[in-house]
Automatic annotation (TrEMBL):
Residues 11-98 form the Rhodanese domain. This is Rhodanese-like domain-containing protein. It comes from the Bacteria. Gene3D superfamilies: Rhodanese-like domain (3.40.250.10). Coiled coil: none annotated. Signal peptide: none annotated.
Length: 107
């Protein structure tokens, strides 16, 4: 399984960030402008993923997003795995929001 990877600090401004974590992980804390499609729903919801720009895929540590990026590339999309996932995002001090009303964290 091959796919390109990028460090969280190297994400371009305005990147399309696709978070493939489970709903409880998403609600605990996510990137402010990320789009959420859990990995288990990605095949049925792939029409929501843009065709005209690179898709940067993130999960908790990088395993699920690696599978998602590989599959997206396999079907002809341009997908890049975000190395280290949301744990690296949080460690880098990048902004996060939560849906729970509590301070965001990586679940």
């Amino acid at each position: 399984m091959t796919f390109p990877e990028i460090d969280v600090k190297s994400l371009p401004d305005g990147a399309y960030l696709l978070d493939v974590r489970e709903p409880d992980e998403w609600q605990a804390g996510h990137a402010p402008d990320a789009c959420h499609i859990p990995l288990g729903e990605l095949q049925s919801r792939v029409g929501e993923v843009p065709l005209d720009r690179p898709v940067y895929v993130v999960c908790r540590v990088g395993g699920r997003s690696a599978h998602a990026a590989a599959w997206l590339n396999h079907i002809g999309r341009e997908a890049i795995n975000v190395d280290g996932g949301m744990q690296s995002w949080a460690a880098a001090g990048l902004p996060m929001v939560s849906e729970s009303g509590r301070p965001p964290f990586v679940a």
